[in-house]
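Exercise 7b. Backbone tokens:
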């Protein structure tokens, strides 16, 4: 059995990915948390430093060499550029890292650069303005017709829902207090100014897209799309899909095909889009890695983590070229893991 190392074993999607491949591979899990949820599911577990630690790469190389790791799959966005920068060191140890080229990652991980490139290619993006101070925030909000229209903000460099806020002047704060959990994304402009006045980094002020939201699981090979599975996000918790439906949306499939070619992407790729008020899907972001909810594709008979490993090993993976069961829904739930 090949040895596969998964970093981010305690991430929301880590346990599902480990479970999807543990019967076929010897799975090594790694996480900065010594009691990460994936610890009880993998064959071997390694506690590693965070990506910000200067010894991060050296410790990962030591694990790869000692345990003869054949394929390394990072699930943590902040690790991707580090692995890409040191990919030759891993390849010298006969380890394939499932990561894109550094130039592609630097664009995908910066939403401002990403949206500029996509707009230049003639693809749909939300109307937005990048700002770097409180005065520019006020000017951009006015230009996007706030407070008459709802807007949203997100940092240029972030992942998940970190820093994302919806700014709606007509929001009922009492309604939020009594009926919404405190992790909702709504925020007043006054609250946002107070937060950003302390430590302002570049953020994007954007039109709010009220329509359906989609996450797309893709497999790319050197800039060519091999598999594209759009799924509508029916329910979310802190930005993580907890219920969804696979949809044969040809417009989104074509959109993602062009994105993969535009950035010469390779391996497992996640794309997020949302519809505007007219039902037109517009780009939100690219996750240039294996997404946690990709395991939902097993409901279509497609094991995306396994496909990613086979591709890294140079094999021609099974992509299920037959008729897909479009319209199939899935749900996710919490469960328990125990270990001594």
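Sequence design result:
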């Amino acid at each position: 059995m090949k040895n596969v190392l998964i970093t981010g074993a305690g991430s929301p999607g880590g346990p599902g990915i480990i479970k999807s491949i543990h019967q076929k591979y010897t799975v090594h899990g790694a996480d900065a948390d010594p009691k990460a949820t994936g610890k009880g599911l993998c064959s071997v577990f390694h506690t590693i430093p965070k990506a910000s630690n200067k010894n991060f790469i050296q410790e990962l190389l030591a694990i790869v060499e000692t345990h003869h790791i054949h394929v390394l799959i990072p699930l943590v966005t902040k690790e991707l550029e580090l692995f890409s920068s040191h990919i030759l060191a891993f390849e010298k140890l006969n380890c394939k890292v499932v990561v894109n080229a550094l130039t592609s990652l630097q664009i995908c991980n910066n939403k401002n650069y990403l949206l500029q490139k996509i707009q230049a290619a003639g693809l749909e993006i939300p109307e937005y303005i990048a700002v770097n101070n409180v005065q520019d925030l006020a000017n951009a909000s006015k230009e996007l017709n706030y407070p008459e229209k709802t807007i949203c903000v997100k940092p240029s460099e972030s992942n998940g829902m970190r820093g994302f806020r919806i700014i709606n002047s007509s929001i009922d704060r009492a309604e939020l207090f009594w009926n919404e959990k405190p992790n909702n994304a709504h925020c007043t402009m006054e609250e946002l100014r107070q937060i950003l006045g302390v430590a302002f980094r570049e953020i994007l002020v954007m039109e709010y897209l009220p329509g359906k939201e989609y996450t797309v699981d893709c497999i790319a090979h050197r800039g060519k799309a091999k598999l594209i599975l759009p799924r509508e996000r029916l329910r979310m918790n802190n930005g993580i899909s907890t219920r969804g439906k696979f949809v044969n949306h040809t417009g989104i499939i074509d959109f993602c095909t062009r994105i993969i070619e535009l950035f010469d992407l390779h391996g497992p790729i996640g794309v997020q889009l949302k519809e505007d008020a007219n039902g037109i899907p517009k780009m939100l972001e690219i996750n240039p890695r294996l997404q946690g909810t990709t395991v939902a594709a097993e409901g279509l008979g497609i094991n995306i983590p396994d496909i990613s490993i086979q591709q890294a090993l140079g094999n021609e993976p099974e992509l299920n070229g037959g008729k897909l069961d479009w319209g199939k829904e899935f749900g996710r739930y919490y469960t328990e893991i125990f270990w001594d």
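Instructor comment: The chain has three domains: 3-99, 106-110+210-331, 127-207. The two ends are 26 Å apart (CA to CA).
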